[in-house]
Amino acid sequence: MKKQITKFFRASLFFSLVLAFMSFQVASAQQTVNGTVVDETGVGIPGANVLVQGTSKGAVTDFDGNFSISASSSDVLVVSFLGYVTQSVAVGNQTSITVTLKEDAAQLDEVVVIGYGTAKKSDVTGAVSQVTAKSFENQPLTRVENALQGRAAGVTVAGSGAPGKGIKVRIRGVNSITGNNDPLVVVDGVFGGDLRTINPNNIASMEVLKDASALAIYGSRGSNGVILVTTKKGSGKAKVTLDQFVTISNINKRLPTLSSGEFARFENDIFTADPNNAGSPPPYSDAELSIFDADPIRYQDLMFQTGVTNNTQLSVSGGSDDKVRYFVSGNFIDQEGTQITSNYRRYSFRSNLSKEFNDKFSVSANVTASREITHNDQDVFNSGDGSAILRAITWDPTAPVRDANGDYILRSPREVANNNYNPIRRFELSDHDVTADRLNLTLNGKYNFTDNFSYTLITAVSTLHRNTESFRVEGDFEATGFTNISYQNNNVTSHQVSNILNWNNEFGKHNIDVTGVYEFQGTRALNNGYGVNDLNVGGLYLADESANESFSNSGNESAIQSYLGRAQYNYDGFLYLTASMRVDESSRFAKDSRTGYFPSGALALNLGNTDFVENLGLSTLKLRAGWGKVGNQNINSTARFSLNNNSGLYTIDGETTNTGSVQSQEGNPDLTWETTTQTNVGIDFGFLNGRITGSIDYFNKDTEDLLLQTIVPGTSIRTFINAGEVNNKGIDFSISADIIENEDFSWNSSFNLSHIKNKVTKLNGDTEFIVGNVSGIGGGGIRLNVIKVGEPLGTFWGYNAMGTWKTTDNIPLDPDGAPVAVPGDEKFALDENGEREFQTIGSGLPDVTFGFNNTFTYKNWDLNVFLNGSLGFDVWNQVRGTISGNGGNRSDLSPTVYDRWTPENETDLPRYGTGNILNSNRWIEKGDFIRLSNLRLGYTFDENLIKGINSLQVYGSGQNLFIITDYTGFDPEVTSIVRGGANEDAGSGVDVGAFPNPVSFTFGVKVTF
């Protein structure tokens, strides 16, 4: 038995040795493995690294994602590419392999654009917020600005629900009193981009530069922050993507007003209460009241309609073996507004082409073109009585749009309510069209002298031609009203040349990156127009000659020349230093004042690899501090010159008529840069190996030598001066987390919050305040804003309302001994002379803005929930005041009319007919809100479901589904100003009938071939 066991072990050992030898021979046999590396949509990834694990043997994929490598069956291939999760694949007996790489959200954020170059996010020393396409791809967008809303700390976005209207974007508060506070938009290195015209589907990422150490590289351009837009580039096999969605929008809210019958009865009550009308029949008969009750006229319903938006996006991208990359896209939007007769259409095209000739020389050419057509923008119909929407709300609810003969009713038959002109007639008969054509051409070239030294040339030309053809039926002193016909042509041409030298190198643990720039940009604008009114014609091109013709011609040119130097130093991934100096020379200032110097410096310490951080349970910790200066030149190019305007005909001797002119502007040759100095301290942190990341920044900005437009004392002549200082300080906080991440279910969440305090710290000389130029409803020279030391920009200026005077009150006397009021009058805070006293009564600038974005995926389903909000600001609800019979409105349409003060019921609502005014805090309301901006549910079908289709997704979403707010108007987020010419930030929070954001539902399909 023992011998048999011994023989068995000997045989087994021999057999095992034979198998091991044979396995060794097989394993040692090398074979050629061909493969393709693709992304999750099946598109090849060029430049991916393929490495045999444990060796230095490797390969790089070509432009189609293909590779070839020699490996044995026992080898493991490690495949990696920036922005994707590294994959390990056993070779085995395979000779052909397809490797699918999944996107890695953490790595995608690794590289950010910092201006004139890129950097790893871990290497950035300034305050930079990045918004990638992945964060907003689940929200159907027609506007780029909406992609920024609530997704970047320190960035506030507020707009209008009107189709095609501009959206206000502000970065870390507002600086300028008179000038423009819009941030600079740089698209693929070219200045002056317009976010409104960019197709969101073309964007790969957006970086928002917020602190001076990041902004100073743009000098005078960066005074209000910088938004860097990087558009998509093609690679790999050809890919065609079609995105089609339809949006249905409605203004679901209606402001409370008296119905037709209620209004008529109230007018009857007022009429019969007047002793002078004793014995006269009331204005409205019982028969009319019955008609109004049965079929009330609701002008809010007549003004609003269901809006439908069609959006079609098509793109083609890819790359070829000869190192040509391309991305071509087209977009068409047709947006029917929620206000009658309003419409917006946009056609846009983009072509991004690049060619790498060899390792040293590459060229790229970008072409973008767009056409926008805006029809009947409601702001064009605004007047001193408020917006067109407000005038519709306060029009006579007992007057139909047309009479029994089918003709429009021009005015209220009984001269009640606002007694303006028929608001529906105005829109249905008017045609106001603005067509804007834009063409941008960019040619970039890069030459690498060595692996460390390169030269980049950026050249760009852009043109804008805006044509306005306006046929507006207004109505005036004539029984049938009058027509205003006008033509306007605006042509703007700009060019840019940027020369960029970059040198970088590593010396052991030391890394140095030096950039030098010389660039030039020039702009030329020409404007001309023709107008005529008092005509009764049937169309735009049928205008007869009229004595009321007017002509206008104007133009301006400006240029800026810049020099820049920046050095970045990195020691062993631990210590980071950045310093820059930019010198700008602007033609908008006189020769001795046109040069501005804008330095900056920043320091960062990366403590992520220290024992201290590991003991705290952190995976990342970086401390940052920066300081710098930026400038602002955003004034008219003629501001330093004195100007005269023709001003009609004059007679000196009483007989001879002479053409006269009057000075309109007094030049100021001493104008110079408005300068902002900013300090920023920040912390970047991460937990759980990057599953949770965030940042906290504290900033302090002081803007001095404010460029202010004012009036020469004792005249109506405008002039520009440098006067005053404004401070903005606050905290930006952002955090994101992969809360759940497994094979079937994931939950990614991000939250950001910004707290900003704005304050005017100094004005010219001993001046304590300057009354602003935001006009109130009804005219009369009423101004609603003030620029006052110690208060924020956009501070409201008015009377402090304190209810009503009661019969038991001790009513003060005026200097003549007469009571200043009678019981039932509105009660205001009075000065020592017994007169109403103007005070600061609120502010329209929010203290806190925030956004909360959540994306859930379960197998093939995805759900996006996005909320945003603002806190700590007021809205001046002049709409509510006007409905209540103020601002020139002849009648009270508010449901509170029966709650007004009477001798029998002494309430805090003033008695009827006392001429209550709008510019008091009676109409100031809290604007705080939380909005569900987007709720989207999508389903992605399995690959290869349909031959030839790589990806197929269907989705439905709702935008602006609900808002939590105490504001009683349409929308607390929108702002409107009665007349143009006012800085919209000075009038922030003023609502004179702003176009509300609609509730929208979107249904779409996205296909990739």
From TrEMBL:
Transmembrane segments: none annotated. Residues 1-29 form the signal peptide. GO terms for cellular component: cell outer membrane. Keywords: Cell outer membrane, Membrane, Receptor, Signal, TonB box, Transmembrane, Transmembrane beta strand, Transport. Residues 121-226 form the TonB-dependent receptor plug domain. Residues 390-961 form the TonB-dependent receptor-like beta-barrel domain. SUPFAM superfamilies: Carboxypeptidase regulatory domain-like (SSF49464), Porins (SSF56935). It comes from the Bacteria. It is found in: Cell outer membrane. Belongs to the TonB-dependent receptor family. This is TonB-dependent receptor. It comes from Seonamhaeicola maritimus.
